[in-house]
Amino acid sequence: MDNLLNKEVMLYSLVILVLLLMAKLTGASILLIAAPLIIAFCSYRQGWLVAVLLLADFLLFQFLLSSFQLNLSFQPYTVLAAAGVTMGYKIKQKQFEESLLYAIVTAIFALLILLVSSKYIFNLDLIALIIKEVKAVDIPLSILEDNGFATSELGLQQLKNLIVEIIPAMIVMVISIYTFVLYWLFNFMMKMVDKQYKAKPISQFYLPERPILGTAIILLVAFIATTITDNGVFVSNVLYLVMLLFAFNGVALIFFVLERGRWNAFLRVVAAIFLIAFLQLIGLSIVGWVDEAFGLRRKAVKRG
Fold it and tell me: Do 89 and 207 belong to one domain?
């Protein structure tokens, strides 16, 4: 039995190596989205420790193929692969909501390690690079008008400064979105592999009890901290993260309503993408807040 498992892990490792080779030769790094799925599947079947060893193989292959240099196009998938370790393990334990939370936290931790190692080992400051790219972006005047900024060089600078301030929260948002995509792809893959597999749909994901009170406390602490330190960066990031939290709740409500409409899977996905793109972050966060404040989904479930 152990010999069979070892062969399975070797097969996973070989597939990941082939994916890296194809990504490097073709420049299509999107192929590496399969690597986090393979690692999550390994964690689901054989436990997190074996998955960590497979993740180490993924990192080693990257360095060997890049002549021990940091290949930036590979790194988003490295962060997702780390998330896959905890996601697969928690899903195996039927802890679906926790799988997303743990995966996001793991991805953030992996990103922090990446940022530190890139700066002190590879002499590459990724945050400074991101800030430089943001400041170099040519933002249309229409975006300034839509966001209440003056259509001038000063307004443009103010908007860019705001974006720079909320980079930490934006990174968390991007990681969370990618983790949701990984969760959806993993469940889709598992349903193809195992017909008996049942996952908890996103429409049944709820925020913890009484998040409104918790959010009020967080905002109060942020306001006090800003008053004391006279620094708006902290509160800007906190506000952005709170909006992100309720936005995910808004996405869950959208899927809940669409599932109640008994549309087929394709139409549900198309309608969900349209509504999410239309509402955007602010609209989704308002929808999510209303759902949680008035318990819309919970009441609908009770009524049947």
Answer: no
Number of domains in the chain: 3
Give the pTM: 0.77
∠ CA(272), CA(277), CA(280), 5° rounding? 115
- Domain of residue 215 covers 201-304
- Let me know the angle formed at the C-alpha of 5 by 41 and 87, rounded to the nearest 5 degrees: 20
pLDDT in tens, the chain (304 residues): 456 567 788 889 999 999 999 988 888 888 899 999 999 999 998 889 999 999 999 999 988 887 767 777 788 899 999 999 999 999 999 888 788 888 988 998 898 888 888 888 888 888 788 777 777 766 665 555 555 555 556 656 766 777 777 777 788 888 888 898 899 889 888 888 888 888 877 788 877 665 565 566 555 655 555 554 455 666 677 777 788 888 888 988 998 888 887 777 778 878 888 988 888 888 898 898 888 888 888 888 887 6
| φ, ψ dihedrals at 201, nearest 5° | -70, 155
Question: Residue length, the chain?
Answer: 304
Residues 6+ apart with CB under 8 A from 190: 41, 44, 197, 199
Catalogue the E-assigned strands of 218-303: none
Phi, then psi, of 124 in degrees rounded to 5: -130, 110
Q: What are phi and psi of 27, to 5 degrees?
A: 80, 5
Nearest by Cα to 72 from 106, 111, 41: 111
